[in-house]
Hints:
By secondary structure, the chain is α+β, with helices and mostly antiparallel strands. It folds into 4 domains: 5-204, DhaL domain (Serine Threonine Protein Phosphatase 5, Tetratricopeptide repeat); 234-303, ACT domain (Alpha-Beta Plaits, 2-Layer Sandwich), CATH 3.30.70.260; 320-434, Rossmann fold (3-Layer(aba) Sandwich); 436-538, Hypothetical Protein Tm841, Chain: A,domain 3 (2-Layer Sandwich), CATH 3.30.1180. Helices cover 47% and strands 18% of the residues. It has helices at residues 8-30, 42-57, 66-80, 83-99, 108-125, 134-149, 155-176, 178-183, 188-204, 250-257, 282-290, 303-316, 333-341, 358-367, 383-388, 405-414, 421-431, 474-485, 503-516; strands spanning 5-6, 106-107, 237-244, 261-269, 272-279, 294-302, 325-330, 346-349, 372-376, 396-399, 436-442, 447-449, 452-454, 459-463, 466-471, 492-497, 521-526, 534-538. The chain has a 6-stranded mixed β-sheet. A hairpin with a 2-residue loop joins strand 14 (459-463) and strand 15.
Amino acid sequence: MEIDCLNGHHLKAMLDSALLCLEDKYKTIDSLNVFPVPDGDTGTNMYLTLAAAVEEAAKAGSSPSTDEVAEAAARGALMGARGNSGVILSQLLRGFALGLKGKENATGEEFAQALGEGVRVAFRAVMKPVEGTILTVAREAAAEAVRAAGYNAPVAGILDKACSIAEATLNRTPDLLPALKEAGVVDAGGMGWLVILRGFYLSLGGEYPVSSGKPVPGTEPDKKDQVHPEGNLIFPYCTEVLIRTKSADSDLLSDLLENLGDSLIVVDSDGLTKVHIHSNHPGEVLEACLKFGSLTRIAVTNMNEQVETALQDKQTGQGEKKTFGIVSVAFGEGIKSIMESLGADVVVYGGQTMNPSTQELKDAVEQVNADTVFILPNNRNIIMTAGQVKHLTDRRIEVIPTKTIPQGISALLAVSPEMGIEANAGQMCETLQNVKTGEITYAVRDTSFNGTQVKEGSIIGLAEDKIVISGKDIPETVSALLEIMITDDEEVCALYYGDQVTREDAEKVLGMLEEQFPRIEFELHRGGQPLYYYIISVE
Protein backbone atom coordinates (compact mmCIF):
# COMPACT_ATOMS: atom_id res chain seq x y z
CA MET A 1 0.00 0.00 0.00
CA GLU A 2 1.38 3.39 -0.98
CA ILE A 3 1.92 5.87 1.87
CA ASP A 4 1.21 9.48 1.01
CA CYS A 5 1.53 10.80 4.54
CA LEU A 6 3.99 9.69 7.22
CA ASN A 7 3.02 9.33 10.87
CA GLY A 8 5.19 8.72 13.90
CA HIS A 9 4.90 4.93 13.64
CA HIS A 10 6.06 5.03 10.02
CA LEU A 11 9.11 7.09 10.96
CA LYS A 12 9.99 4.77 13.85
CA ALA A 13 9.81 1.79 11.50
CA MET A 14 11.99 3.61 8.95
CA LEU A 15 14.67 4.29 11.55
CA ASP A 16 14.58 0.68 12.77
CA SER A 17 14.90 -0.56 9.20
CA ALA A 18 17.83 1.77 8.49
CA LEU A 19 19.62 0.52 11.60
CA LEU A 20 19.23 -3.10 10.50
CA CYS A 21 20.62 -2.22 7.09
CA LEU A 22 23.62 -0.52 8.70
CA GLU A 23 24.08 -3.54 10.95
CA ASP A 24 24.51 -5.60 7.80
CA LYS A 25 26.81 -3.17 6.01
CA TYR A 26 28.87 -1.34 8.63
CA LYS A 27 31.96 -3.53 8.17
CA THR A 28 31.84 -3.01 4.41
CA ILE A 29 31.65 0.73 5.04
CA ASP A 30 34.55 0.52 7.49
CA SER A 31 36.67 -1.09 4.78
CA LEU A 32 36.21 1.92 2.48
CA ASN A 33 39.13 3.66 4.13
CA VAL A 34 41.24 5.96 1.98
CA PHE A 35 44.27 4.56 3.76
CA PRO A 36 44.72 0.77 3.60
CA VAL A 37 45.22 0.65 7.37
CA PRO A 38 43.20 -1.51 9.79
CA ASP A 39 41.41 1.39 11.48
CA GLY A 40 38.45 2.18 9.24
CA ASP A 41 35.56 3.16 11.51
CA THR A 42 33.08 5.22 9.48
CA GLY A 43 30.51 2.43 9.35
CA THR A 44 30.95 1.64 13.04
CA ASN A 45 30.53 5.30 13.99
CA MET A 46 27.42 5.74 11.86
CA TYR A 47 25.90 2.52 13.20
CA LEU A 48 26.47 3.50 16.84
CA THR A 49 25.18 7.03 16.22
CA LEU A 50 22.02 5.75 14.53
CA ALA A 51 21.59 3.12 17.28
CA ALA A 52 21.49 5.95 19.83
CA ALA A 53 18.91 7.75 17.67
CA VAL A 54 16.72 4.65 17.40
CA GLU A 55 16.95 4.02 21.14
CA GLU A 56 15.79 7.55 21.92
CA ALA A 57 13.05 7.46 19.26
CA ALA A 58 11.66 4.31 20.90
CA LYS A 59 10.89 6.43 23.98
CA ALA A 60 8.63 8.77 22.03
CA GLY A 61 5.47 7.01 23.30
CA SER A 62 2.80 4.70 21.94
CA SER A 63 1.14 7.24 19.63
CA PRO A 64 3.83 9.76 18.77
CA SER A 65 3.60 12.46 16.15
CA THR A 66 6.09 12.57 13.32
CA ASP A 67 7.91 15.55 14.77
CA GLU A 68 8.16 13.90 18.21
CA VAL A 69 9.89 10.87 16.72
CA ALA A 70 12.18 13.01 14.57
CA GLU A 71 13.10 15.24 17.51
CA ALA A 72 13.81 12.25 19.76
CA ALA A 73 15.97 10.62 17.08
CA ALA A 74 17.92 13.86 16.58
CA ARG A 75 18.47 14.18 20.32
CA GLY A 76 19.71 10.60 20.60
CA ALA A 77 21.99 11.01 17.58
CA LEU A 78 23.52 14.18 19.04
CA MET A 79 24.37 12.49 22.33
CA GLY A 80 25.53 9.28 20.67
CA ALA A 81 27.49 10.88 17.82
CA ARG A 82 30.91 9.32 17.25
CA GLY A 83 33.57 10.55 14.87
CA ASN A 84 33.14 13.02 12.04
CA SER A 85 30.72 10.76 10.18
CA GLY A 86 28.58 10.34 13.30
CA VAL A 87 28.50 14.07 13.96
CA ILE A 88 27.48 14.78 10.35
CA LEU A 89 24.79 12.08 10.58
CA SER A 90 23.50 13.68 13.78
CA GLN A 91 23.32 17.04 11.99
CA LEU A 92 21.43 15.50 9.05
CA LEU A 93 18.90 14.12 11.54
CA ARG A 94 18.80 17.39 13.47
CA GLY A 95 17.96 19.35 10.33
CA PHE A 96 15.46 16.68 9.34
CA ALA A 97 13.74 17.14 12.71
CA LEU A 98 13.71 20.92 12.28
CA GLY A 99 12.04 20.45 8.90
CA LEU A 100 9.28 18.39 10.50
CA LYS A 101 8.81 20.60 13.56
CA GLY A 102 5.15 21.08 14.47
CA LYS A 103 3.90 18.40 12.09
CA GLU A 104 1.66 15.64 13.42
CA ASN A 105 2.04 13.85 10.08
CA ALA A 106 4.22 14.65 7.07
CA THR A 107 3.30 14.65 3.41
CA GLY A 108 5.78 13.49 0.79
CA GLU A 109 6.62 17.09 0.00
CA GLU A 110 7.21 17.90 3.68
CA PHE A 111 9.35 14.80 4.07
CA ALA A 112 11.49 15.77 1.05
CA GLN A 113 11.89 19.33 2.31
CA ALA A 114 12.96 17.96 5.71
CA LEU A 115 15.70 15.95 3.99
CA GLY A 116 16.82 19.19 2.37
CA GLU A 117 16.84 20.99 5.72
CA GLY A 118 19.01 18.20 7.08
CA VAL A 119 21.54 18.86 4.34
CA ARG A 120 21.56 22.60 5.05
CA VAL A 121 22.19 22.05 8.77
CA ALA A 122 24.92 19.49 8.09
CA PHE A 123 26.74 21.79 5.67
CA ARG A 124 26.68 24.58 8.26
CA ALA A 125 28.19 22.23 10.87
CA VAL A 126 31.25 21.46 8.73
CA MET A 127 33.81 24.25 8.72
CA LYS A 128 35.21 23.43 5.26
CA PRO A 129 32.79 21.19 3.32
CA VAL A 130 34.49 19.01 0.72
CA GLU A 131 32.85 17.68 -2.43
CA GLY A 132 32.88 13.92 -2.85
CA THR A 133 31.81 13.17 0.71
CA ILE A 134 28.60 12.23 2.55
CA LEU A 135 27.51 15.87 2.21
CA THR A 136 27.55 15.63 -1.59
CA VAL A 137 25.59 12.37 -1.58
CA ALA A 138 23.03 13.74 0.91
CA ARG A 139 22.61 17.00 -1.02
CA GLU A 140 21.98 15.35 -4.39
CA ALA A 141 19.62 12.78 -2.85
CA ALA A 142 17.61 15.50 -1.09
CA ALA A 143 17.39 17.59 -4.26
CA GLU A 144 16.03 14.58 -6.16
CA ALA A 145 13.54 13.91 -3.35
CA VAL A 146 12.22 17.46 -3.67
CA ARG A 147 11.92 17.05 -7.45
CA ALA A 148 10.03 13.76 -7.08
CA ALA A 149 7.72 15.29 -4.48
CA GLY A 150 6.85 17.99 -7.00
CA TYR A 151 5.25 15.27 -9.13
CA ASN A 152 3.13 14.11 -6.17
CA ALA A 153 5.02 10.83 -5.81
CA PRO A 154 4.26 8.79 -2.66
CA VAL A 155 6.91 8.78 0.05
CA ALA A 156 8.27 5.38 -1.05
CA GLY A 157 8.52 6.68 -4.61
CA ILE A 158 10.35 9.77 -3.39
CA LEU A 159 12.85 7.60 -1.53
CA ASP A 160 13.27 5.30 -4.52
CA LYS A 161 14.31 8.26 -6.65
CA ALA A 162 16.51 9.65 -3.88
CA CYS A 163 18.29 6.30 -3.50
CA SER A 164 18.96 6.06 -7.23
CA ILE A 165 20.56 9.50 -7.30
CA ALA A 166 22.43 8.84 -4.05
CA GLU A 167 23.94 5.68 -5.56
CA ALA A 168 24.90 7.46 -8.78
CA THR A 169 26.46 10.31 -6.80
CA LEU A 170 28.31 7.86 -4.55
CA ASN A 171 29.82 6.21 -7.62
CA ARG A 172 31.01 9.64 -8.78
CA THR A 173 32.74 10.52 -5.50
CA PRO A 174 36.16 9.25 -6.73
CA ASP A 175 35.94 11.76 -9.58
CA LEU A 176 35.21 14.54 -7.09
CA LEU A 177 37.84 13.62 -4.49
CA PRO A 178 41.23 12.53 -5.91
CA ALA A 179 42.23 10.69 -2.72
CA LEU A 180 39.28 8.33 -3.22
CA LYS A 181 40.24 7.64 -6.82
CA GLU A 182 43.84 6.87 -5.93
CA ALA A 183 42.72 4.53 -3.15
CA GLY A 184 40.17 2.87 -5.43
CA VAL A 185 37.20 3.39 -3.10
CA VAL A 186 34.00 5.42 -2.90
CA ASP A 187 33.28 7.70 0.04
CA ALA A 188 32.49 5.67 3.18
CA GLY A 189 30.17 8.27 4.74
CA GLY A 190 28.29 8.62 1.47
CA MET A 191 27.75 4.87 1.35
CA GLY A 192 26.50 4.98 4.94
CA TRP A 193 23.87 7.58 4.06
CA LEU A 194 22.81 5.57 1.01
CA VAL A 195 22.36 2.50 3.24
CA ILE A 196 20.20 4.55 5.62
CA LEU A 197 18.02 5.89 2.79
CA ARG A 198 17.61 2.35 1.45
CA GLY A 199 16.54 1.26 4.93
CA PHE A 200 13.89 3.97 4.92
CA TYR A 201 12.70 2.83 1.50
CA LEU A 202 12.56 -0.87 2.38
CA SER A 203 10.40 -0.13 5.39
CA LEU A 204 7.84 1.79 3.34
CA GLY A 205 7.98 -0.74 0.52
CA GLY A 206 7.06 -3.60 2.82
CA GLU A 207 10.47 -5.30 2.54
CA TYR A 208 11.43 -4.87 6.16
CA PRO A 209 15.02 -6.15 6.63
CA VAL A 210 15.87 -8.72 9.27
CA SER A 211 18.91 -8.81 11.51
CA SER A 212 21.93 -10.29 9.80
CA GLY A 213 22.96 -12.03 13.00
CA LYS A 214 26.47 -10.63 12.58
CA PRO A 215 28.30 -9.27 15.64
CA VAL A 216 27.57 -5.58 16.06
CA PRO A 217 30.04 -3.02 17.37
CA GLY A 218 29.91 -2.43 21.09
CA THR A 219 30.50 0.76 23.01
CA GLU A 220 32.81 -0.58 25.71
CA PRO A 221 36.60 -0.94 25.35
CA ASP A 222 38.27 -4.29 25.81
CA LYS A 223 39.14 -5.03 29.41
CA LYS A 224 42.83 -5.03 28.56
CA ASP A 225 42.54 -1.38 27.55
CA GLN A 226 41.07 -0.26 30.83
CA VAL A 227 43.21 0.98 33.69
CA HIS A 228 42.05 -0.03 37.14
CA PRO A 229 43.15 2.36 39.88
CA GLU A 230 42.74 -0.11 42.74
CA GLY A 231 45.85 -1.49 44.45
CA ASN A 232 49.31 -0.15 45.17
CA LEU A 233 51.39 1.21 42.30
CA ILE A 234 54.88 -0.17 41.66
CA PHE A 235 56.31 3.37 41.41
CA PRO A 236 53.90 5.51 43.47
CA TYR A 237 55.67 8.89 43.49
CA CYS A 238 55.12 11.13 40.48
CA THR A 239 58.08 13.50 40.47
CA GLU A 240 58.26 16.58 38.25
CA VAL A 241 60.95 19.23 38.22
CA LEU A 242 62.38 21.98 36.01
CA ILE A 243 66.18 22.25 35.75
CA ARG A 244 67.66 25.65 34.94
CA THR A 245 70.77 24.96 32.90
CA LYS A 246 72.68 26.43 29.99
CA SER A 247 73.80 23.15 28.47
CA ALA A 248 71.92 20.10 29.71
CA ASP A 249 73.05 16.70 28.43
CA SER A 250 69.62 15.13 28.08
CA ASP A 251 71.02 11.75 27.06
CA LEU A 252 73.18 11.51 30.17
CA LEU A 253 70.34 12.73 32.40
CA SER A 254 67.98 10.15 30.90
CA ASP A 255 70.57 7.42 31.45
CA LEU A 256 70.86 8.39 35.13
CA LEU A 257 67.11 8.46 35.65
CA GLU A 258 65.86 5.51 33.62
CA ASN A 259 66.72 2.94 36.31
CA LEU A 260 64.94 4.94 39.02
CA GLY A 261 61.40 4.33 37.79
CA ASP A 262 59.14 4.41 34.74
CA SER A 263 57.11 6.87 32.61
CA LEU A 264 60.29 8.92 32.21
CA ILE A 265 60.01 12.04 30.06
CA VAL A 266 62.88 14.52 29.63
CA VAL A 267 62.25 17.59 27.46
CA ASP A 268 64.59 20.54 26.76
CA SER A 269 63.28 24.02 25.95
CA ASP A 270 64.95 27.45 26.13
CA GLY A 271 67.46 26.72 28.89
CA LEU A 272 65.03 24.62 30.90
CA THR A 273 64.81 20.86 31.12
CA LYS A 274 61.50 19.39 32.27
CA VAL A 275 61.69 16.01 33.97
CA HIS A 276 58.75 13.73 34.71
CA ILE A 277 59.17 10.28 36.26
CA HIS A 278 57.35 7.77 38.47
CA SER A 279 59.70 6.39 41.11
CA ASN A 280 60.06 4.86 44.58
CA HIS A 281 62.63 7.44 45.70
CA PRO A 282 61.93 11.07 44.70
CA GLY A 283 65.04 12.16 46.61
CA GLU A 284 67.29 10.12 44.35
CA VAL A 285 65.60 11.66 41.31
CA LEU A 286 66.20 15.19 42.61
CA GLU A 287 69.83 14.43 43.49
CA ALA A 288 70.43 13.18 39.94
CA CYS A 289 68.81 16.32 38.51
CA LEU A 290 70.91 18.61 40.74
CA LYS A 291 74.02 17.47 38.88
CA PHE A 292 72.73 19.33 35.81
CA GLY A 293 71.67 22.67 37.28
CA SER A 294 69.46 24.46 39.80
CA LEU A 295 65.97 23.08 40.40
CA THR A 296 62.65 24.90 40.35
CA ARG A 297 58.96 23.98 40.33
CA ILE A 298 59.50 20.73 42.16
CA ALA A 299 56.35 18.64 42.56
CA VAL A 300 56.12 15.22 44.18
CA THR A 301 52.75 13.47 44.27
CA ASN A 302 51.89 10.23 46.01
CA MET A 303 49.70 8.64 43.34
CA ASN A 304 48.33 6.01 45.73
CA GLU A 305 46.92 8.80 47.89
CA GLN A 306 45.76 10.60 44.76
CA VAL A 307 43.80 7.54 43.67
CA GLU A 308 42.22 7.12 47.12
CA THR A 309 41.25 10.81 47.25
CA ALA A 310 39.79 10.67 43.74
CA LEU A 311 37.71 7.63 44.63
CA GLN A 312 36.46 9.30 47.84
CA ASP A 313 35.64 12.52 46.00
CA LYS A 314 33.76 10.54 43.37
CA GLN A 315 31.72 8.79 46.06
CA THR A 316 31.00 11.90 48.14
CA GLY A 317 30.83 14.47 45.34
CA GLN A 318 33.33 16.63 47.25
CA GLY A 319 36.84 17.83 46.55
CA GLU A 320 38.54 21.17 45.95
CA LYS A 321 37.42 22.99 42.81
CA LYS A 322 40.21 23.59 40.32
CA THR A 323 40.75 26.61 38.08
CA PHE A 324 40.54 24.30 35.10
CA GLY A 325 40.47 20.59 34.35
CA ILE A 326 41.53 18.40 31.44
CA VAL A 327 39.72 15.59 29.64
CA SER A 328 41.96 13.66 27.27
CA VAL A 329 41.22 10.83 24.84
CA ALA A 330 43.57 7.84 24.56
CA PHE A 331 43.70 4.21 23.54
CA GLY A 332 46.14 1.80 25.11
CA GLU A 333 46.76 1.27 28.82
CA GLY A 334 50.26 2.70 28.75
CA ILE A 335 49.28 5.89 26.93
CA LYS A 336 46.35 6.37 29.27
CA SER A 337 48.64 6.03 32.30
CA ILE A 338 51.07 8.58 30.85
CA MET A 339 48.29 11.10 30.25
CA GLU A 340 46.93 10.65 33.76
CA SER A 341 50.39 11.13 35.22
CA LEU A 342 50.83 14.34 33.21
CA GLY A 343 47.71 15.88 34.74
CA ALA A 344 44.69 14.72 32.74
CA ASP A 345 41.76 14.58 35.18
CA VAL A 346 39.81 12.07 33.10
CA VAL A 347 41.11 9.96 30.24
CA VAL A 348 38.36 8.68 27.96
CA TYR A 349 39.02 5.47 26.08
CA GLY A 350 38.93 6.09 22.36
CA GLY A 351 40.86 6.55 19.17
CA GLN A 352 40.89 4.73 15.87
CA THR A 353 38.06 2.19 15.49
CA MET A 354 36.33 3.36 18.67
CA ASN A 355 35.66 7.08 18.80
CA PRO A 356 33.98 8.22 22.03
CA SER A 357 30.47 9.61 21.75
CA THR A 358 29.39 13.13 22.59
CA GLN A 359 27.66 11.71 25.67
CA GLU A 360 30.84 10.00 26.86
CA LEU A 361 32.85 13.20 26.52
CA LYS A 362 30.10 15.18 28.27
CA ASP A 363 30.04 12.65 31.13
CA ALA A 364 33.82 12.95 31.44
CA VAL A 365 33.57 16.74 31.59
CA GLU A 366 30.95 16.49 34.35
CA GLN A 367 33.39 14.40 36.43
CA VAL A 368 35.90 17.25 36.54
CA ASN A 369 35.55 19.62 39.48
CA ALA A 370 36.22 22.79 37.51
CA ASP A 371 34.16 25.42 35.71
CA THR A 372 36.53 25.34 32.70
CA VAL A 373 37.54 22.08 31.07
CA PHE A 374 40.05 21.57 28.26
CA ILE A 375 39.31 18.64 25.94
CA LEU A 376 42.19 17.01 24.08
CA PRO A 377 40.64 14.84 21.30
CA ASN A 378 44.04 13.46 20.18
CA ASN A 379 42.46 12.28 16.93
CA ARG A 380 41.26 14.34 13.97
CA ASN A 381 38.09 12.26 13.85
CA ILE A 382 37.10 13.25 17.41
CA ILE A 383 37.52 17.03 17.19
CA MET A 384 34.01 17.64 15.81
CA THR A 385 32.49 15.43 18.50
CA ALA A 386 34.37 17.32 21.22
CA GLY A 387 33.02 20.57 19.80
CA GLN A 388 29.45 19.38 20.35
CA VAL A 389 30.02 19.19 24.12
CA LYS A 390 30.08 23.01 24.30
CA HIS A 391 26.32 23.08 23.63
CA LEU A 392 25.43 20.45 26.24
CA THR A 393 27.00 21.69 29.48
CA ASP A 394 27.19 24.85 31.52
CA ARG A 395 30.96 24.40 31.85
CA ARG A 396 33.30 26.48 29.73
CA ILE A 397 34.73 24.05 27.19
CA GLU A 398 38.00 24.71 25.40
CA VAL A 399 38.79 22.16 22.68
CA ILE A 400 42.51 22.00 21.94
CA PRO A 401 42.64 20.60 18.37
CA THR A 402 45.12 17.80 19.05
CA LYS A 403 45.01 15.38 16.13
CA THR A 404 47.40 12.72 17.43
CA ILE A 405 48.50 11.06 20.66
CA PRO A 406 51.95 12.76 20.56
CA GLN A 407 50.25 16.14 20.19
CA GLY A 408 48.08 15.36 23.21
CA ILE A 409 51.09 14.41 25.34
CA SER A 410 52.95 17.52 24.21
CA ALA A 411 49.94 19.68 25.12
CA LEU A 412 49.80 18.12 28.60
CA LEU A 413 53.50 18.80 29.10
CA ALA A 414 52.89 22.45 28.22
CA VAL A 415 50.25 22.97 30.93
CA SER A 416 51.24 25.17 33.85
CA PRO A 417 48.80 25.35 36.81
CA GLU A 418 50.18 28.78 37.71
CA MET A 419 49.08 30.29 34.38
CA GLY A 420 45.56 31.36 33.49
CA ILE A 421 43.10 29.64 31.19
CA GLU A 422 43.83 31.72 28.10
CA ALA A 423 47.60 31.46 28.58
CA ASN A 424 47.44 27.68 28.95
CA ALA A 425 45.18 27.35 25.93
CA GLY A 426 47.59 29.42 23.87
CA GLN A 427 50.62 27.50 25.09
CA MET A 428 49.02 24.12 24.37
CA CYS A 429 48.01 25.17 20.87
CA GLU A 430 51.45 26.63 20.20
CA THR A 431 53.25 23.43 21.17
CA LEU A 432 51.27 21.44 18.58
CA GLN A 433 53.29 23.12 15.85
CA ASN A 434 56.51 21.58 17.22
CA VAL A 435 55.41 17.93 17.17
CA LYS A 436 55.66 15.51 14.27
CA THR A 437 53.71 12.25 14.47
CA GLY A 438 54.64 8.96 12.87
CA GLU A 439 52.80 5.64 12.95
CA ILE A 440 53.73 2.09 12.00
CA THR A 441 50.96 -0.34 11.07
CA TYR A 442 50.09 -2.83 8.33
CA ALA A 443 48.17 -2.64 5.05
CA VAL A 444 44.81 -4.36 4.72
CA ARG A 445 44.68 -4.16 0.91
CA ASP A 446 46.70 -3.32 -2.18
CA THR A 447 46.63 0.36 -3.06
CA SER A 448 48.63 3.39 -4.10
CA PHE A 449 48.88 6.60 -2.11
CA ASN A 450 50.82 9.70 -3.19
CA GLY A 451 52.85 7.51 -5.50
CA THR A 452 53.68 4.95 -2.79
CA GLN A 453 52.73 1.42 -3.88
CA VAL A 454 51.33 -0.63 -1.01
CA LYS A 455 50.73 -4.39 -0.94
CA GLU A 456 48.29 -6.09 1.39
CA GLY A 457 50.06 -7.29 4.53
CA SER A 458 53.07 -5.02 4.09
CA ILE A 459 54.30 -2.80 6.93
CA ILE A 460 53.55 0.86 6.28
CA GLY A 461 54.80 4.07 7.84
CA LEU A 462 52.68 7.20 8.12
CA ALA A 463 54.00 10.70 8.76
CA GLU A 464 51.42 13.32 9.70
CA ASP A 465 48.64 10.92 8.67
CA LYS A 466 50.09 10.33 5.19
CA ILE A 467 51.59 7.07 3.94
CA VAL A 468 55.21 7.76 3.08
CA ILE A 469 56.89 4.35 3.21
CA SER A 470 56.08 0.68 2.74
CA GLY A 471 58.42 -2.03 4.00
CA LYS A 472 58.79 -5.75 4.62
CA ASP A 473 59.36 -5.71 8.37
CA ILE A 474 58.76 -3.44 11.34
CA PRO A 475 62.33 -2.34 12.25
CA GLU A 476 63.16 -1.60 8.61
CA THR A 477 60.04 0.53 8.23
CA VAL A 478 60.62 2.41 11.49
CA SER A 479 64.14 3.23 10.36
CA ALA A 480 63.01 4.39 6.92
CA LEU A 481 60.17 6.47 8.36
CA LEU A 482 62.47 8.33 10.74
CA GLU A 483 64.92 8.99 7.90
CA ILE A 484 62.08 10.96 6.34
CA MET A 485 60.78 12.62 9.52
CA ILE A 486 64.01 13.66 11.27
CA THR A 487 65.70 16.84 10.04
CA ASP A 488 68.40 19.07 11.51
CA ASP A 489 65.77 20.79 13.68
CA GLU A 490 64.67 17.75 15.71
CA GLU A 491 66.28 16.71 18.98
CA VAL A 492 63.95 14.25 20.74
CA CYS A 493 62.09 11.16 19.52
CA ALA A 494 59.68 9.13 21.66
CA LEU A 495 58.45 5.68 20.65
CA TYR A 496 55.25 4.22 22.11
CA TYR A 497 55.10 0.51 21.36
CA GLY A 498 51.76 -1.23 20.91
CA ASP A 499 50.17 -4.36 22.31
CA GLN A 500 51.59 -6.50 19.47
CA VAL A 501 55.20 -5.56 20.28
CA THR A 502 57.22 -7.04 23.15
CA ARG A 503 59.47 -4.91 25.31
CA GLU A 504 62.45 -6.94 24.08
CA ASP A 505 61.66 -6.22 20.42
CA ALA A 506 61.03 -2.54 21.17
CA GLU A 507 64.41 -2.23 22.90
CA LYS A 508 66.12 -3.80 19.87
CA VAL A 509 64.50 -1.18 17.63
CA LEU A 510 65.56 1.52 20.10
CA GLY A 511 69.17 0.33 20.01
CA MET A 512 69.15 0.30 16.21
CA LEU A 513 67.80 3.87 16.09
CA GLU A 514 70.30 5.18 18.64
CA GLU A 515 73.12 3.97 16.38
CA GLN A 516 71.44 5.33 13.26
CA PHE A 517 70.67 8.77 14.78
CA PRO A 518 73.38 9.37 17.41
CA ARG A 519 72.52 13.03 18.04
CA ILE A 520 68.81 12.33 18.73
CA GLU A 521 67.63 11.66 22.29
CA PHE A 522 65.32 8.65 22.21
CA GLU A 523 62.64 7.67 24.73
CA LEU A 524 60.81 4.35 24.83
CA HIS A 525 57.38 3.93 26.45
CA ARG A 526 54.84 1.13 26.55
CA GLY A 527 51.76 2.50 24.81
CA GLY A 528 49.73 -0.70 24.67
CA GLN A 529 47.72 0.63 21.71
CA PRO A 530 46.03 -1.79 19.28
CA LEU A 531 46.57 -1.81 15.50
CA TYR A 532 49.66 0.40 15.53
CA TYR A 533 53.00 -1.28 16.24
CA TYR A 534 54.52 2.10 17.07
CA ILE A 535 53.29 5.63 17.56
CA ILE A 536 56.24 7.99 17.18
CA SER A 537 56.74 11.56 18.36
CA VAL A 538 59.52 13.72 16.90
CA GLU A 539 60.29 17.17 18.35
